[in-house]
Amino acid sequence: MIAQSDFDFIVTYQQAENETERSTVLAAFKERAVYAFVHLISQISKDEYVRYTLTIIDDMLREEVSRTKLFEDVADLLKRTPFSFFLGLLHRQDQYIVHIAFSILTKMAVFGEARMTGDELEYFMGSLKEAIHRGTSNDYIATVVRCMQTLFRVNSYRLAFVNMNGYESLTHALYSTRKCGFQIQYQIVFCMWLLTFNEHAAELALSGNLVQTIAAILGTCQKEKVIRIVVATLRNLLTSIEDKHVKKQAALQMIQNRIPTKLDHLESRKFQDTELIDDMQFLKTELQKVVHVLTSFDEYESELRLGTLHWSPPHKCDMFWTENAHKLTDNCHELLKLLIAMLEKSNDPLVLCVAAHDIGEFVRFHPRGKVHVEMFGGREAMMRLLMVQDPNVRYHALLGAQKLMIHNWTDLGFDI
């Protein structure tokens, strides 16, 4: 049952024909308008009535965002936050209700005077993260992404999202929507771009596969607006991070994902957008500086730590192994242990091929390589790869095993 006072307000508000008349109604009813809205969404069980009320509220705030003050004033009187009126709706089964609540809460959190904090912020961001992670299985993903584009203007909201591993959900959504058209991909990368204006958020982006994911888009997408936002995001990663070591890691990830080569290809497109051209030139210049100062072992170590081994030049260079094989035993054999762990845990055939090859080269060029590899179970891990289905993995595992045996024969005094 709808109270008479709530009914009177809704009817009067719906009869208003333009923004001026609606503002007049709201000014006349004041807090009674908010009480009517709250009663209708919290005390009525039928979803269609809740949908109807939430749509009115969302339209009301979209028409004039300063109307968030109505909810803030009533919340102050009730000693609660304005967000508490709507957060409970995020667990409803009706997905339209959930996503119109996202829209309302976003407007209040960004354009209102109050800032969402504490448990409320954690719950709200967690709900958004869960919604974006569902990707194409979420019918309202466009609404979720639009909310994020608005929310990430506020620094505290950026931090709240990335601190709960939000990048993982964004990159997952970017992959799952790759066949849904360029617009949704543009909007997801736009969210990443906004996040990387914060230094802490930019640093956290390097711990996942964000660079790898957007680099793949850069190599395949033909839409200029998508290319522009990807390049701008990569630029942010280099300009937002102050720590020289972390910035170097960002540049290394870009180099390993062949960003310089992709930028060279893009230059042939003859873009007219001056900002895009400037960002591309900035990236090329900065990455070239890093290439000049990098040693091959820096790049190799970065590949190893990120678990992204591929056939970059150091792997097949005898000079590299002659000069650097001993470094795998530094710091209690840290890098050698990582290499052997890849043989045991990785499911990527390319990583397995390169790791098997590198262990064989380590044995070839380190005087006690065989002893070190066997000490940490590398021999057994190599032998297990001889039984996998992938023929390339079996081939490189066989070569690695042969190098282990040859080294053993050398220890016995044979001149092999």
Automatic annotation (TrEMBL):
The keyword Ion transport applies. Pfam families: V-ATPase_H_C (PF11698), V-ATPase_H_N (PF03224). One of its GO terms (cellular component) is vacuolar proton-transporting V-type ATPase, V1 domain. GO terms for molecular function: proton-transporting ATPase activity, rotational mechanism. Keywords: Hydrogen ion transport, Ion transport, Transport. Residues 294-409 form the ATPase V1 complex subunit H C-terminal domain. The keyword NAD does not apply. SUPFAM superfamilies: ARM repeat. Subunit of the V1 complex of vacuolar(H+)-ATPase (V-ATPase), a multisubunit enzyme composed of a peripheral complex (V1) that hydrolyzes ATP and a membrane integral complex (V0) that translocates protons. V-ATPase is responsible for acidifying and maintaining the pH of intracellular compartments and in some cell types, is targeted to the plasma membrane, where it is responsible for acidifying the extracellular environment. Subunit H is essential for V-ATPase activity, but not for the assembly of the complex. Belongs to the V-ATPase H subunit family. This is V-ATPase_H_C domain-containing protein. It comes from Caenorhabditis japonica.
